[in-house]
Amino acid sequence: MKQSRLMSFCEAIANVTVGYGVAVLTQILIFPMFGLHTTLAQNLQMGAVFTVVSIVRSYVLRRVFEAIRVRSTKPPLQTSDGSVRARLPYRRDFGGAAARDQSSIR
């Protein structure tokens, strides 16, 4: 199913909002272990910058993958009379040359 640009953006926002809380909490707990002492306001500001970057990254990647999906989807087949019929699912032949030689017998 195709996901709209708006829903891609909403999903990215939800994902990053949860990530923002985790990131700020992680900064508060981890920074002192490395000798970095920041205020809560500084942690929130740094988290905000990383959040904006993350939203843009998530949105762009989702759109790239959606474009790849759309390009790889084959269009429906048109018959000689102009009508359109559904394309059957792709069937791989894993039998190799022996199976191809047998196909004329079937």
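Above is the first protein from milestone M3; the second protein from the same milestone is given next.
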Amino acid sequence: MASFARGATLVSALVAATTCLLPSAQAKKADAASAAASQGDDAGPHPVLDRIRSSGRIVLAHRESSVPFSYYDANKKPVGYALDLCKDVAEAVRRHLGLKTLEIAYVPITTATRIDTIASGKADLECGATTNNAERRQKVAFTIPHYITGSRYAVRADSPIEELNQFEGHVLVSTAGSTPFKAIDTANRDRLLRIDVKPVKDNAEAMKMLGDKSADGFAMDDVQLYGLIAESPNPAQFKVVGKFLTIEPLAIMLSKDDAAFKKVVDDEMRRVIRSGEAEKIYDRWFTKPIPPKNVSMNLPMSYLLRDSWKYPSDAVAN
């Protein structure tokens, strides 16, 4: 009888020990099943996710002088508001693919090269200040807007120019391939304004021309103009004028050929917006001192962006 009791006790102990181990084992199986299910649900084809998975690397395209969205700091390191959001998205992609680590690589772009860089697969995300519009959506896709702005004009502080029609007989520059450039070029031709509209390589070249008086104005999203002026050697030398020529929703750009990748990006953007993380990232870059000169842009979030984030969506008017 004693022998039977000891045997029964031993069996009970083994059962108890096995039962204690089950939750851990079940949790591991559940995690693995969740990752497999997540990847199994990916709508095919998914060339971007496959490329990232096989290489263990995600490539972020960045601008060189689009303050504060995407630019080089004093050490030539890519930084900015859009890049911080892209890094959050990269982490979401890592989790979705079940990778232990995911290398982040960077590739510089200009307004002229950014769309081809994404469409050709040279980069996975374009982290800058690109307008989501119908023409571009024929080649690429966009996630939820991270900023809403409009085109205005930077001029020298002593300039009498206030509106577009006053640039008649003057040189007005904008970056080649940008929405503001197309808008002023179209308005100039349609309204017979006789403005000398010139494309330039990037924002830095436009500001240089404005400073050395080889241009009389620089048309660009007003938020970028304020950032460029704040970071210029002599901010008091310039001012921003004019009514909005366009209204532009700026968003991270990605491939239009991978619906599963876009879903991961969209879901992460919704998460950071609804959790309040996106607003904290915004405040860091628009209301606090930023590199390289530790100057604040002092631009609180506009009602346009705040309202759009109440119901975050990639759908835009145009």
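Note on the second protein: The first helix runs from residue 2 to 40.
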